[in-house]
Amino acid sequence: MTTLSDKKPLPPGTKLVGKWNGKSYHLERLLGLGANGQVYLALAGGRSVCAVKIGLEAAELQGEANILASLNILEKQRRPFLLDVDDAVLDGKDVPFYVMRYIPGSPVKDHLRANGSHWFGVIGYRLLERLAALHEAGWVFGDIKSDNVLVTDYGQVELVDYGGMTAKGRSIRQFTEIYDRGYWSAGTRIADPAYDWFAVAILWLHCFDGKRLTQLSRTLIPQNRHPRELMKLVRSNPRLKPMEAWMDKAFAGRFLDSRDACANWRETIRETHSAKAKASQVPAWMAGLFAASIVLCATAAVWLFH
Ligand SMILES: Nc1ncnc2c1ncn2[C@@H]1O[C@H](COP(=O)(O)OP(=O)(O)OP(=O)(O)O)[C@@H](O)[C@H]1O
């Protein structure tokens, strides 16, 4: 019997037939199990690949679908993300679902682990660009975390789970504690672009220093949770230390706007790269000394064997 319980995934091959739009979806495998529902890789009409989110809470799912529908309208130049919204009958019960474009990527933390941490410069820039576009359209993403930032094999960055997306000025709809600036006494939970910048800075700490970040959140009493504690981690991490100035601004919400956050990111990455390139260059005096020693050796060899 096929039932939708909050934790148990539906078996592969389950067919959902939309009650209102009549479209059918074959569930292939579970992509993610979250607090608000289950996301499956599916085949629409038996052919095209898509992602289906089945909700346990109809109102919550409808809220997400409404946000995605307005995003489709706002971002006409992008391929639509929301493809269908409907109900299906499973085991005699109405189950609400919506269908999205499938993003063939992995969470940013996994991507960096598999492909190398040097990717984080370009991924970070693309993520900030995506956020800047949302901010300019009047939205704040809200629930930035590794699972919701998918990176494709070609390094494209896509956001998933728009359940936290909130209009500027409203209370953040959905967030993850450790990424939340309210939790770290760094500001309110009122949606503004700085809310997302803060979460992006936490994302890099989570990717490169996850253990110490978790440890910090477990051991600090609430009164002592503060960005200065996060900055101590940044300064003592060789990967993040070069990004110190950017991270500090992101924690304090001190960029002019999201384009400024992007430009600052690019500049910091560029400076880090040129500093590394300089450090790896062999100084001229050392190269000269090396050349002279070769000449000396060659002369000695000729003299010995003559
Ligand atoms: N369009 C998509 N394409 C590919 N994978 C997706 C897509 N949408 C969601 N996923 C995967 O499914 C996971 C769970 O989806 P989602 O975050 O929407 O559920 P949720 O119930 O809101 O979860 P959470 O409790 O983490 O907020 C995501 O973290 C992501 O890995």
Automatic annotation (TrEMBL):
Transmembrane annotation, as ranges: 284-305
Pfam families the UniProt entry points to: Pkinase (PF00069)
InterPro entries registered for this protein in UniProt: Kinase-like_dom_sf, PAK3-like, Prot_kinase_dom, Protein_kinase_ATP_BS
Domain Protein kinase: 25-306
Domain of life: Bacteria
Gene3D superfamilies: Phosphorylase Kinase, domain 1, Transferase(Phosphotransferase) domain 1
Keyword terms, alphabetized: ATP-binding, Kinase, Membrane, Nucleotide-binding, Serine/threonine-protein kinase, Transferase, Transmembrane, Transmembrane helix
Chain residues that bind ATP: K53
A molecular function (GO) term: protein serine/threonine kinase activity
PANTHER family listed in its UniProt record: SERINE/THREONINE-PROTEIN KINASE SAMKA-RELATED-RELATED, SERINE_THREONINE-PROTEIN KINASE SAMKA-RELATED
Family: Belongs to the protein kinase superfamily. STE Ser/Thr protein kinase family. STE20 subfamily.
Protein name, as recorded: Serine/threonine protein kinase
